[in-house]
Amino acid sequence: MIRIKCCGMTRVEDAVRAAELGADAIGLIFTARSRRRVDVDQARAIARALPPMVTTVALFMDEDPAFVDEVIAAVQPALLQFHGAERDDWCAQFGRPYLKAIAMGEGADAVPRLRAYPGAAGLVLDGHGLGEAGGSGRAFDWSLMPRDLGQPLILAGGLHPGNVAEAIRVARPWGVDVSSGIESAPGIKDPGRLAAFIAAARAADGHVQGV
Ligand SMILES: O=C(O)c1ccccc1NCC(=O)[C@H](O)[C@H](O)COP(=O)(O)O
């Protein structure tokens, strides 16, 4: 079954709605490079409001380890996500499962970087360029999604209710990650787009699985 992560949550009500609609994971962004940044208090309020069995993901980009530790202590995220130039051993230092985002904006040239994170619980393949922030709304060539990497691959970048079905059909990802495609403004999730995205992803997954 496809896993759905809704990223860039800044409001308790949006995160709870996403969980009720069937999102598997909620992303909370801590980098100053994001227009969807939350502070520790906001993040803790969102994480505590979520029902059980919905994963809280804390997202960082080239951050000081002390700050990552501070967020872990306060928010208790089940998963970390690193979106910058962090290396695999650096990501592993926190003793928590982590996702590593890979910038796919350079197309096929980006593919070798997918093999540099054997310690990651999964990889987020995102549409932006190397060194750029996520949440760009940019898609990449979904046919570049490898099938034989041996790690869960999460498709991100430019997904929205109108293209997520085709993305799942072409890329066959383990999960999908969406941010701007379900928003009315940065960090503000639109209830209609959120519901439409989750319904479209679930329906497409059913077709791919043949159920
Ligand atoms: O979303 C951000 O503002 C952001 C900023 C800096 C680093 C990462 C960021 N988002 C990471 C995500 O997981 C997004 O969901 C992913 O980039 C997809 O975004 P979108 O293309 O808007 O769906």
Walkthrough of the structure:
The chain has 211 residues and is α/β, with parallel strands linked by helices. It has one domain: TIM Barrel (Alpha-Beta Barrel). It is built from six helices and ten strands. The protein has helices at residues 12-21, 40-49, 65-75, 88-92, 164-171, 191-209, and strands at residues 3-6, 25-29, 55-60, 79-82, 98-103, 122-126, 153-156, 175-178, 183-185, 188-189. Strands 1-2-3-4-5-6-7-8 form an eight-stranded parallel barrel. The protein has a two-stranded antiparallel sheet with strand order 9-10. Strand 7 (153-156), helix 5 and strand 8 (175-178) form a beta-alpha-beta unit. Helix 1 packs parallel to helix 2 (40-49) and helix 1 (12-21) packs parallel to helix 6. The longest helix is centred in the last third of the chain and has 19 residues, at 191-209. It is globular. The termini are close together. The relative contact order is 0.17. The model has no long low-confidence stretch (mean pLDDT 95). It binds the ligand O=C(O)c1ccccc1NCC(=O)[C@H](O)[C@H](O)COP(=O)(O)O.
Which descriptors apply to this entry?
single chain; 211 residues; TIM Barrel; 8-stranded parallel barrel; 6 helices; binds the ligand O=C(O)c1ccccc1NCC(=O)[C@H](O)[C@H](O)COP(=O)(O)O
